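Supplementary Methods. Inverse-folding protocol.

Structures were first reduced to a discrete structure-token string of length 449. This string, shown here, constituted the complete conditioning input.
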């Protein structure tokens, strides 16, 4: 068995493979499991990845290209050359083809579409016709047409003819002659039924989604049902495609990766880290850093406004990192929890008051516990006045931060923004500024500054 790490070292040392070594490397690349070759491509630059794809056999190169993220596929286009790319593009499933087209400039996408034959262009056009973010954009339009008046034998014969051309044959939608969805059945039921039986006798009530439904929401409620696929219908109830389990998993993984990235104050890379250019990594982070740097000026303004208070009691400056850190962490915990609950459908925008009330009480309990500890420790070291200031501030900061952190993602959802964008980075800054205002106001009142 070929050592993929050894292959990686060879390719790294010599990206321009000499002709006399091409056959040797090609044979070596055909030996490892396909997952190892995919990992090798994901860890490589576009130039080196293109070399690997060219050295692979046609079947394995198509498998590897299909396994890559759409953004990574787009990066490889220039390195691969038109002939290879057109071949890979034609072999993709229509939904994967559309994902790649979404990553490309309009003129290149149009050129790619012209390379398809009429039938493939029409099928791809069906998926392209639905708006981005809809489940219609992620479905497979290649579905066997099984009519309710067909027999089991007729159905099985039809499946044998179209099995290579459709996305799945394990979950089968049943339609009327005018393509209205009437039920679903499974290949297992067909195999175990009498050949003369009608498929209408074997069908169950269908679980389905509308083509214009939100892709992430649809995928999240579909996955826990533990079914292999479900029909997608248009506004008239006609069958237009199927959503498979693996496509739903991809949708949820993409959404979770995006939320995790934005919660950490950067944009998602959308492809493996080592194959992402330095420019793209910088671009994914710089905007957020600039936004946070500007918003952090609020904290500087607060400190400037209470400069006299700090000068009168320098000891107050020692606790600023503790208070701002506690407030930011409390708000981030609440925001992360509620953002996840929104994604799973456990919380809806209309639940904003319930969430606010719940997080208010959680924040009060957390603040009471942390405040009590802060009061005791600060009083023992710095005196009773400082203990009261620290204990009271921790209580109020935790209460405010938890409430704001819980509500902000819901507000974002309600106005059509990404909840993850409104959560951790902005909440940290807001908690810092408001927490310091509360801190200095309490200090001035308690200590008479």
């Amino acid at each position: 068995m070929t050592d993929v790490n050894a292959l990686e070292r060879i390719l790294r040392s010599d990206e321009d493979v000499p002709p006399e070594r091409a056959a040797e490397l090609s044979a070596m690349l055909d030996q490892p499991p396909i997952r190892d070759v995919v990992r090798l491509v994901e860890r490589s630059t576009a130039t080196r990845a293109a070399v690997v794809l060219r050295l692979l056999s046609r079947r394995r190169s198509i498998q590897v290209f299909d396994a890559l993220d759409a953004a990574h596929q787009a990066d490889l286009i220039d390195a691969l050359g038109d002939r290879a790319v057109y071949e890979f593009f034609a072999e993709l499933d229509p939904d994967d083809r559309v994902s790649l087209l979404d990553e490309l400039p309009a003129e290149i996408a149009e050129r790619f579409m012209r390379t398809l034959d009429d039938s493939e262009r029409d099928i791809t056009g069906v998926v392209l016709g639905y708006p981005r973010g809809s489940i219609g954009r992620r479905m497979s339009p290649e579905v066997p047409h099984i009519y309710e008046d067909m027999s089991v034998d007729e159905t099985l014969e039809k499946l044998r003819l179209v099995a290579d051309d459709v996305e799945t044959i394990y979950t089968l939608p049943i339609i009327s002659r005018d393509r209205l969805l009437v039920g679903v059945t499974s290949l297992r039921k067909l195999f175990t039924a009498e050949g003369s039986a009608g498929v209408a006798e074997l069908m169950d009530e269908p679980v389905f989604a509308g083509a214009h439904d939100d892709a992430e929401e649809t995928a999240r409620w579909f996955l826990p049902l533990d079914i292999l696929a479900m029909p997608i219908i248009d506004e008239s109830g006609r069958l237009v495609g199927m959503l498979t389990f693996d496509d739903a998993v991809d949708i949820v993984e993409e959404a979770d990766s995006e939320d995790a990235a934005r919660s950490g104050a950067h944009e998602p890379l959308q492809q493996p880290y080592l194959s992402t250019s330095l420019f793209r990594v910088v671009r994914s982070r710089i905007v957020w850093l600039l936004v946070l740097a500007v918003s952090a000026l609020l904290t500087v303004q607060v400190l400037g406004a209470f400069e006299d208070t700090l000068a009168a009691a320098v000891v107050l400056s020692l606790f600023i990192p503790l208070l701002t850190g506690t407030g930011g962490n409390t708000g981030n915990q609440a925001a992360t929890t509620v953002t996840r609950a929104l994604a799973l459908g456990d919380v809806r925008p209309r639940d904003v008051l319930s969430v606010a009330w719940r997080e208010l009480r959680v924040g009060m309990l957390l603040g009471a516990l942390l405040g009590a500890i802060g009061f005791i420790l600060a009083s023992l070291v710095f005196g009773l006045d400082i203990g009261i200031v620290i204990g009271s501030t921790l209580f109020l900061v935790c209460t405010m931060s938890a409430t704001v952190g819980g509500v902000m993602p819901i507000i974002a959802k309600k106005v059509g923004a990404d909840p993850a964008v409104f959560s951790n980075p902005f909440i940290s800054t807001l908690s810092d500024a408001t927490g310091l205002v509360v801190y200095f106001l309490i200090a001035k009142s308690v200590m008479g500054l």
